[in-house]
Amino acid sequence: MKQVLESLIRQALSDLVKSGELAPQEAFAEGFQPSSLKINLDVPKDKQHGDFASNIAMVSSKVFGKAPREIASLLTGALAGSKIVEKTEIAGPGFINFYIRAESRLAAIPTILAAGERYGHSRAGKGKKIQVEFVSANPTGPLHVGHGRGAAYGASLSALLAATGHEVVREYYVNDAGRQMSILAASLWLRYLAILGESFAFPVNGYKGDYLLEIAQQFADEHGERFHRPAAKVFAGIAPDEPQGGDKEQHIDAIIARCRELLGEEHYEILFNTSLDAILADIADDLGEFGVQYDRWFSEASVASEIPGALALLRSKGHIYEQDGALWFRSTSFGDDKDRVVQRDNGEYTYFASDIAYHKNKFDRGFDTVINVWGADHHGYITRVKAALTALGLDADRLVVKLVQFAILYRGEERVQMSTRSGSFVTLRELREEVGNDAARFVYVARKTEQHMDFDLELAKSETKDNPVYYVQYAHARISQLWQKVPAGVAERLKQTDWTAKDSAALLEPLSEDAELALVAKLAAFPEVIDVAAQNFEPHTLAHYLRELASEFHGYYNSTRVIVDEEPLVLARLALAESVAQVIRNGLAILGVNAPESM
RNA sequence: GCGCCCGUAGCUCAGUCGGAUAGAGCAACGGCCUUCUAAGCCGUGGGUCAGAGGUUCGAAUCCUCUCGGGCGCGCCA
Question: Is strand B less than 7 A from the beta carbon of A323?
């Protein structure tokens, strides 16, 4: 509807320019095309301002050197007699208000019922390859509630982009190469040794979570005594831990070294891979149950071989220099605060070096746009990564970093304490088990990413209208139940109607109430909601739209009976209700939330 | 100190590529169940859009400064 109206306005504008009634001022005349004017069409907040309103007359006032209301008058004159426009009004400083004919408004219903689950989908992003990398938490333990927000956002964003025709690759970058992983492997070993009866103080810096105990038990069951070494040997001559007045970092590093020494590289690798695989599998399970699927799990270790090449390329462009025995990337040339080390004086590459290679790899794969969903604490990292891309000769604007702010959990008024250190953090799995996947997905994604989020567990669990998830789902359930209650003949007739047929719209003529026309207008806006949400990477606008739609439907449902005596009216109202249900289904599907038939 | 994000109703938040009288839910107050799910609906009150300047036909929205909150500033990952 909106597109149709927009093209009508464009046509009228171009006709007026052709006929000379509108002529661009000299300053704008060169190369002027009517099509270069941006036509803004909005659904006004106030219904008295029509179905659509445009500010085109005001915006083009300077170009044409005429008063806005004069331009508006010419335009409305040219639009008179249109099939879809019932009337136009010029208001205020020069707004044009459009009133659409009732028949044209109702056209949304056949469109929805014919398109079904594809309604709202578009080809706006056709031919565009886009990668969304999200969560990418270190595989050193279970995901916590902060990761949940990134997961819900990334998954919904990906679904939005797919719905608008983009070719989407969902990717999880697995940090399987760093020191943290070595600490994890050593922690597993120590837990295993304890299970076999060894007694010692667990390192302050080790991973203390319960999840590791289970993995250790399985490891013991599988390998028996093969990895057993006496604690006395393990800790002989090891630098003291923090409680003993030592340095916890040195302590844990010494244990890792001892572990490799006592087990040998082959066995150490088994240990390492066991911990990595177990935790990664757990993360994948967790996300899978949360409705979050990936196309690719990208291993950091696998990009190691590409680091020298990427750095060589930077070096050849003069962006690498040596100082204090280390190699530095001159990121200050690209707006960074300081230069960054890419290779340490001990020869090891930094995490940043991996990231340069990884991002180069991403663009080498031909993505038009690469989206990184990061926790807000990583924002200081954006500049240097973009600097590296620019230095590599890539367009850094094609990398979009979406920062997701933290979520703070509340149980009613009370704040839920989260602490990684004590190991008492609330995991995503615990959250999902408490509030359910649907509520968690919806609540997470209902806020824009830049907003700090207060996640109220009580609210998310409540089965009342206070809870937006239930509110929207309930609207869907109510409509589903209607099908059971309408006369069988009507339901059957509706099911068999071919909504692509031209005369099918005639069935909807009984719809005449304001609430019905308003509801249809809301449904007609859905495709644009999807397009804009996808374009701006903002799934929260979809969540808000669904809430509004559900609210309008509940109001209508409460005031107007669907099942009445006149069959044509029942048919038309059921068609309207089913259109609402279809849009709710399509919207919730993108958000990863179920649309239940009954509640 | 420097950088990024945020500041909108008592609370949680929309609205921010400039548009008409700044919206919604909760909470408060008042109504609605012999009728398709009251898991719901209708109504009322509630605002210095943190503050001050500026840009213009028009600013919550853009620019500058100030204040308040969060986060970041490693040869860690």
Answer: yes
Per DSSP, what are the bridge partners of residue A168?
Answer: A130
Q: Is the CB of A413 under 7 A from strand B?
A: no
pLDDT in tens, A60-99: 877 787 888 888 888 888 887 778 888 888 887 788 888 8
Three-point CA angle A432, A526, A500, nearest 5°: 120
pLDDT at A424: 52
Largest CA distance in chain A: 97
Model pLDDT for residues A533-545, shown as the tens digit of each residue: 999 999 999 999 9
Quote the pLDDT of residue A386.
94
**Strand B proximal to A49 Cβ, under 7 A:** yes
Provide DSSP, A412-458. Answer: TTEEPP--TTTT-PPBHHHHHHHH-HHHHHHHHHTS-TTS-EEEEHH
Q: Determine the distance between A415 (CA) and B26 (C1') in angstroms.
A: 18
Which residues in range 524-543 of chain A are in contact with strand B, contact meaning CB within 7 A of any of its atoms? 532, 536, 538, 540-541
pLDDT digits (tens, 9 = 90+) for A563-591: 998 889 999 999 999 999 999 999 999 99
Residue A96 half-sphere exposure toward CB, CA atoms < 13 A: 31
ipTM: 0.93
**Residue numbers in A 559-578, CB below 7 Å of strand B:** 559-563
Residues A174, A300: contact at Cβ < 8 Å? yes
3-state secondary structure of A400: strand
Q: Map residue A537 onto helix, strand or coil.
A: coil
Residues 153-212 of A with CB under 7 A from strand B: 175, 177-180
| A198-218 pLDDT tens trace | 999 999 999 988 899 999 999
The amino acid that residue A28 corresponds to is F
CB A461 within 8 Å of CB A439: yes
Burial class for A411, CB neighbours closer than 10 Å (0-12, 13-18, 19+): middle
Q: What is the pTM of this model?
A: 0.93
| Rounded mean pLDDT, A483-491 | 89
CA A135 to C1' B5, in angstroms, rounded, equals: 20
Q: Which nucleotides of B are covered by protein (CB under 7 A)?
A: 2-6, 12-15, 17, 19-27, 35-42, 57, 70-77
Dist. CA A334–CA A340, nearest whole Å:
12
Burial of A283 (0-12, 13-18, 19+ CB in 10 A): buried
The helix/strand count (H/E) of chain A reads as: 24, 15
Q: What is the pLDDT of residues A8-57, one digit of tens each?
A: 888 888 888 888 888 877 766 666 676 667 777 888 777 778 888 888 88
